[in-house]
Amino acid sequence: xxxxxxxxxxxxxxxxxxxxxxxxxxxxxxxxxxxxxxxxxxxxxxxxxxxxxxxxxxxxxxxxxxxxxxxxxxxxxxxxxxxxxxxxxxxxxxxxxxxxxxxxxxxxxxxxxxxxxxxxxxxxxxxxxxxxxxxxxxx
Length: 139
Hints:
- It is a single chain.
- The chain has helices at residues 70-76, 83-96, 107-125, 132-138; strands at residues 22-28, 39-48, 51-60, 67-68.
- The protein is built from 4 helices and 4 strands.
- By secondary structure, the chain is of the alpha+beta class.
- Helix 1 (70-76) packs antiparallel against helix 2 and helix 2 packs antiparallel against helix 3.
- The radius of gyration is 17 Å and the shape is globular.
- Strands 1-2-3-4 form a 4-stranded antiparallel sheet.
């Protein structure tokens, strides 16, 4: 959107960083492929032992534009990876999103979907450390 008439992007360059310990993308939509998701989320996370050393979380369908969850990521860094930490981060994430009612669902429904997708990242990537039972019992 910032290109002038006749300008083209010919190259994108990213800083090389070590690969994350895990990456997860979750989506809720009517079709699996070629569809705008009602709600989606992506997370890249790195651990050192049981400590979160770096994390990046994005969410779509829960605000006017896709979001990077800065406060949630800031909270998770240098925290132990356990159910209590994930639940606290999920609560912070809820303060960062601002879904609206539309054809894809109500704002309340989208908040619930995002919460479940947030949990799904940890359940999928760290099944030996985070369990649905622990999240449910604490939350």
